[in-house]
Amino acid sequence: MSTTYKYIPALGLDWLTPLYDPLSKWVMRDEYFKRQLIHQARIEAGHHVLDLGCGTATLTILIKQMQPEAVVVGLDGDPKVLEIARRKVAQAGVEITLDQGLASQLSYSDNSFDRVLSSLVWHHLNRENKRRATREAFRVLRPGGELHLVDFGKPHNAAAYLISRLMSGAEEARDNIQGLLPNIFSEAGFVQVAEVGRAMTVFGTLSFYQARKPD
After folding, report:
1. Please, how many CA atoms are within 13 Å of residue 199, restricted to the half-sphere of its CB?
2. Is residue 2 situated within a structural domain?
3. Residue 129 belongs to a domain
4. Is 36 inside a domain boundary?
5. 99 has which bridge partners?
6. What is the pLDDT of residues 41-91, one digit of tens each?
7. Is 6 a member of any domain?
8. Residue 13: partners with Cβ closer than 8 Å, 6 or more residues away
9. Domain span at residue 160?
10. What is the pLDDT of residues 192-203, one digit of tens each?
11. How many CA atoms lie within 13 A of 20 on its CB side?
12. Beta-carbon neighbour count of residue 14 at 10 Å?
């Protein structure tokens, strides 16, 4: 892992972390697009699923609720956000493993998961760590396993373009806005890489991506 790595909290500042769920629910419509991501992933009974950068575990819990017979693991680098996640998992009454760690340096063995899902994480990573996280997702997936990701993408209309002009000043978001994530996925070894859907938010275009590890 790069010695210059800087962890960025979900909303950029630690003190904003308690506001993450309300803002995600009312501003980003996060449950809507996270359900869409889960449907896209076609998770089956017995699948081992990693929610990479799980945050407060909204997506992680939804995965388990929508496919109770999957083995679901959530990972995040922020101990404060994981405290919230653990409370939510307990309240939901579901069996989920939550681990602390970085997307760019996973502690899991090779070929551990059938699906890796991620929501609004890649735009927090600089290009080096996007590549590292993508290679790590590839490594921990089983042959034939799939990466399913939703994050900010290339703007698709005038309003999204104007919003993206503000976001593109940040190094971490620039590759997303320029539509470079599929190239990064392909470089890591994924095949059948595709943008399979879009959603508009007040912060810009969300792109839904899927990619498969060769058999």
Report:
1. 20
2. no
3. yes
4. yes
5. 75
6. 999 999 999 999 999 999 999 999 999 999 999 999 999 999 999 999 999
7. no
8. none
9. 14-212
10. 999 999 987 777
11. 22
12. 12
